[in-house]
Amino acid sequence: MTSRPTFLFCIDAGTSIGLGHLMRSWALAQVLKAHAAEIHFLCFPLSAKVEAWFQQEDISVHYLPTDEKQPHAWEAEDALGLAEQIDPQWIITDGYVFDTSFHQLLKSGGYSVLAIDDIADCHYVTDAVLNQNPGFAPQDYSAHPETRLFLGPSYALLRHGFEGQPGSRKFQGPASNIVLSTGGEDPLGLISKILQTLTLLPVPPLFVKVIWGPLNSTRPETHIRGKHRVEFMAVGPEEMPALMSWADLGISAGGSMLWEYAALKVPVVAYITANNQQRGVDYLHQQGAVRSLGPAAAFSAPPLQALLTELITNPSQRQGLSEKLWASIQPRKVADIVQYLASTKGEI
Predict the structure, then answer these.
(1) What whole-number distance in Å separates Cα of residue 151 and Cα of residue 238?
(2) What are the strands of the beta sheet with 128-131, ordered from one edge?
């Protein structure tokens, strides 16, 4: 190979938008970097903490200009301008702003384009579409006849430290270790509501580790909430696998972290914190792979109290959830995506 293959990720993410799109693209970027690829991200300005993640991974990040009147305006010309400088083999988009016209402009520039999607709400003229969520079929998509569709949790994008985990996991006795996360931020105050509900549970003392997202405000100190110990943790991506595998039970937003819990065989109670999570969480709930408590905006303490009491005290329930959630991402097919990207443009 005479030169490193180059990939440009156009991500609708930033301090004022959120990090959901960024983190799943981050996982694909890590897979590509393992094959000696050069990675560039184009997005809105990020916090210093998130920017440090890019530096640690040797990923180049480029920021879009901001506009106070229309702060989230994406223009295809911004992506094409950067593409002219770095000459990527592929442009990868992740975000709802990237519609048919945006992708058409990228294609007209002569670039191969992969769209990461989770709602199937526009016509796709891209070379490929990746949707890792369950419950989608080819007929759900309006796309060019030659567009390659990678659909389903077998293509779930896992960050380093999650792929290939674990062996058998057996749950015995009551749960004592809980990991709680709402994603990059907690605009609904869900963490506080859940912690308050935990004080009402008729269970032995718990150790609760709260993943304090990088877009949240100042991290609280570790403290005792009732009889439970609560520790707020601001952790980097490299620390997440060990933290999440420590859990006997996860309480999570219904985004990409569900697939990481699946890889670790950790049972999960899920809240829907964004509309795009509804279909996937509902499907997994129906399959018995997660226990859903519905939209976070409609939080109610009694259902959560009953469900957590049941799962904390019943290891067989947790065992069943963990095994079904792990099975939902099998067989793993992410290598098929890498092979496709390599065979179409250059060699990875």
Answers:
(1) 27
(2) 60-63, 38-43, 6-11, 90-94, 112-116, 128-131, 148-151
Burial zone of 200 (CB within 10 Å; 0-12 exposed, 13-18 middle, 19+ buried): middle
Q: What is the pLDDT of residue 347?
A: 41
149 and 207 part of one domain: no
For residue 186, the model assigns a pLDDT of 87
Is-above-0.90 flag for pTM?
Answer: yes
Residue 182 has pLDDT above 60, yes or no: yes
- The enclosing domain of 211 has a CATH number of 3.40.50.2000
> Are 149 and 190 within one domain?
no
Rounded to whole angstroms, the Cα distance separating 222 from 204 reads: 19
| Rg of the chain on CA atoms, in Å | 20
Same domain, 186 and 148: no
Report the domain count for the chain.
Answer: 2
116 belongs to a structural domain: yes
